[in-house]
Amino acid sequence: MTILIEQPEFEGGIGERNKGPVDENELVLDGGFVVPETMPDEGFVAPDTNSFGHTFRDYHVESERQKGVEDFYRTNHINQTVDFVRRMRGEYGKLNKVEMSIWECCELLNEFVDESDPDLDEPQIEHLLQTAEAIRKDYPDEDWLHLTGLIHDLGKVLLHPAFGELPQWAVVGDTFPVGCAYDESIVHHKYFLENPDYKNPVYNTKYGIYSEGCGLDNVLMSWGHDDYMYLVAKENKSAFPSAGLFIIRYHSFYALHRADAYKHLMNEEDIENLKWLKIFNKYDLYSKSKVRIDVEEVKPYYLSLIKKYFPAKLKW
Ligand SMILES: O[C@H]1[C@H](O)[C@@H](O)[C@H](O)[C@@H](O)[C@H]1O
Ligand SMILES: [Fe+2]
Ligand SMILES: [Fe+2]
């Protein structure tokens, strides 16, 4: 791994700002993948409870961990503004922090535990492999989807000192559009009241700075591991499909893929890609368990996928 640059300053004064109108990137649909209609008989079975014995994504259960999660969302919702997102995209979109392979990044994540997650407190590499292996059971032929499972959370590397050691609220948790009204279905919605954009008439309407059917790639999402990994995968990809990029960018956008909010911003391509995202979510969420994967055993398979879809070293 080559660390190219010292970490950027986090508060204020970050690099060039994205001043212009929303300048997001194009998602080109490959159209090559058709969602299979039948499922194999014996596949991944989603459990009823998470690794703490609670139902999944229950943000109101009484527990020590849940208090931390609620605290996390309070800070997240207060600070994720249009200005903040533009600043982060401008800075991290340069991809000039580190050069390393995908597998090196998986290993870097070993030390981090996600404070926003009520369902899992294992190191992240476990979660990546659990997700990928669960998908592999049910969709053995969709190797790009296995790889998506492996890499979808790699953006959490923003927590690492080489990436500016961003605070958890700027890296993990559910995501949502900024620049238009925050939908009520977003977890712990009440904390948006203290977000300066909440009172800004340019941003607090149904469409805000967007328009009907403008396409999600034109929408600024709250900043974190999803958007960052999307930028990395998009800029470094050789053969990785756009459905995979879509999953990476929106996998934490539960208001969309679980609550059907923000549909008015979607275009035709988004509607197609959402089918894959909904499939993916099952494995991302319900594979969270205490069952450990033997990393050395599955490593050769994932290295072969990485080689097929990405260059040996990526710019991060
Ligand atoms: O707590 C989790 C976690 O950070 C995941 O990586 C993210 O995708 C989820 O949406 C979030 O709620
Ligand atoms: Fe995630
Ligand atoms: Fe995940």
TrEMBL record:
Its cofactor is Fe cation. GO terms for biological process: inositol catabolic process; L-ascorbic acid biosynthetic process. It catalyses: myo-inositol + O2 = D-glucuronate + H2O + H(+). InterPro entries: Inositol_oxygenase. Pathway: Polyol metabolism; myo-inositol degradation into D-glucuronate; D-glucuronate from myo-inositol: step 1/1. One of its GO terms (cellular component) is cytoplasm. Substrate binds at residues 57, 114-116, 156, 173-174, 251-252. Keywords: Ascorbate biosynthesis, Cytoplasm, Iron, Metal-binding, Oxidoreductase. The keyword Metal-binding applies. Fe cation binds at residues 127, 152-153, 225, 251, 284. Its EC number is 1.13.99.1. The keyword Signal does not apply. Binds 2 iron ions per subunit. Its main location: cytoplasm. It is found in: Cytoplasm. One of its GO terms (molecular function) is inositol oxygenase activity. Belongs to the myo-inositol oxygenase family. This is Inositol oxygenase. It comes from Herrania umbratica.
